[in-house]
Amino acid sequence: MTAPSSPLTIAQLAQLAGVSTATVSKVVNGRAEVSPETRAAVEELIRRHGYRRQRRRSPPTTLIELVFHALEGDYPVEITKGVTQIAHQHHLLVGITDLHHDPAAGDTWIDAALARRPTGVLAVFSGLTDHQHDRLARREIPLVLIDPADAPAKTIPSVSAGNWHGGLTATRHLIDLGHRRIAIITGPDAALPSRARLDGYRTALDLAGLPTDPGLITGGDFLIEGGRTQAHHLLTQPDPPTAIFATNDGQAIGVYHAAAQLGLRIPDDLSVIGFDDLPSIRWTIPPLTTIRQPLTQMAAAATTMLLHLAHHEPLPHHRLELATELVIRASTAPPPHPRRRTR
Amino acid sequence: MTAPSSPLTIAQLAQLAGVSTATVSKVVNGRAEVSPETRAAVEELIRRHGYRRQRRRSPPTTLIELVFHALEGDYPVEITKGVTQIAHQHHLLVGITDLHHDPAAGDTWIDAALARRPTGVLAVFSGLTDHQHDRLARREIPLVLIDPADAPAKTIPSVSAGNWHGGLTATRHLIDLGHRRIAIITGPDAALPSRARLDGYRTALDLAGLPTDPGLITGGDFLIEGGRTQAHHLLTQPDPPTAIFATNDGQAIGVYHAAAQLGLRIPDDLSVIGFDDLPSIRWTIPPLTTIRQPLTQMAAAATTMLLHLAHHEPLPHHRLELATELVIRASTAPPPHPRRRTR
Fold first, then answer.
1. Start and end of every HTH lacI-type domain (chains A, B) (predicted)?
2. ipTM of this complex prediction, to 2 decimal places
3. pLDDT (tens digit, 9 = 90+) per residue, A115-138?
């Protein structure tokens, strides 16, 4: 059989590859349930001949479902802005669901969502189970994860921030200022963004030839109150840190409270660096130095990926990681010399 | 032919306009493929006679449209939580639109919204014009306003906070602490919530037998930066106030910054009270005393009203005003005795 000169349909690709049309569909839609060999074979055919959709149906609805683990703080607003920006350009409505931290809520949502037949689903941070991912895949409803907390069992397209690099940059900033005793308050142990930031911290210390003191690593939960408790614990040690990497902005606010309670001035007595750069923290006193995650751009990029998938177009990147950026404000400074501490 | 007394069906409209029922259907469903002249003729008939759907079908979609003037800060999250809470109980999806402070954006939105035929529309703070209200009304799509900034030309059901009473309570709290020189930073002059809070302030002063000093009333815009500028102006007067009612939480944060810049301690040298009680301000240092608007409950109540309207049930209240509440934290205290000021 000679190669046709025009791009191949799914049926033609299936015939050439000796697999089912369903399998080819999975490959072109970026789904994971295909063996690496089959995927490679189909992708090689597409590379050689091109691929065209069999028929151009209009999507059944003009809706993107945006699913939040929880609606809290201004993080959801930054995400929603990015999604609505792209959706609006394509005349799509954005439907919001709040799972209230409740895994069971996802099951209720998905029954309704499948009936609505959305153009696609964007899931933020955490919330959908592998089983729910499968149910969407079986209906060929594309899914993209924004800022995923977990590593799903199968490869699902996602957009994250450069968490590891952000952790590295935050810690390096403190090292460059002259700090040697740098503490970290991590996020939830199971959340990948949290782990990546911690690994970046360790690597920055290591590259600078500084030891990692286990007493300066405390486990947090990304909440303000937890940040306060952990910071109080760190700052009342016999040899307290001169700087704290709070790993998110909420915990940094908690550190501010612990410092105020202990009579420590920021940044004179203690440097603090956050992570996120949410609008609400730009007006802390002093303004917080932090690592900016481009949440709105991440959400916009995820929406664009979702539209590619919905139109059966190949994704340029399956996992996209957008760069984080150091934003220096006024909460970091060289460590105090000589050490003067209230306790 | 005399005008019928009851609203017209599509068939009657088609007959009167001399066009097909399909054309009338396109007009009432907000579709674009109709000449401007035909659309104008049909809409004029609907304006004169009204329009009723021929048969009562179950709603074509199960969607509530939630329209924000702007997606900024955590205010939209508090509103969305209330709407999704009720919508979820009724298996309705909440679709979000961001008008980006742009009145023209409402026209683009409404064309799409009419085609989606939502169960109803919730408009927050400001954004939809009287003309847009009319277009929804003509399609029998119910509309409820949440925290409306303007007084619409026609009576549209709405849910607000007790703004006047909140202004009264905030000012009385400061008077009760012993303050006599109490300044106010108002919101936008044209926004009704802002005017109501100012009127409450005036009445509280008047009832306490205190004069209203025009030099202590400054115009704001509900933004942090504006709050800072106005507070700096107030606090550098020859006889500065000992307390400032910031009328929203954002402006209160601006006051904190002006005070920090002038070396004034809150609440020792200056008392500050906000309005809103958004989650993001509960962790200011010191924690802000404020007037709580029950935004989530307001949004939930508006959604319930919308569902009543969608089911052609009478509303118990056409305008609902939910009580505000004084939340005393740590930014208010008796005025300093004797006066000691850095400037």
1. 8-58
2. 0.75
3. 888 999 999 987 688 889 989 998
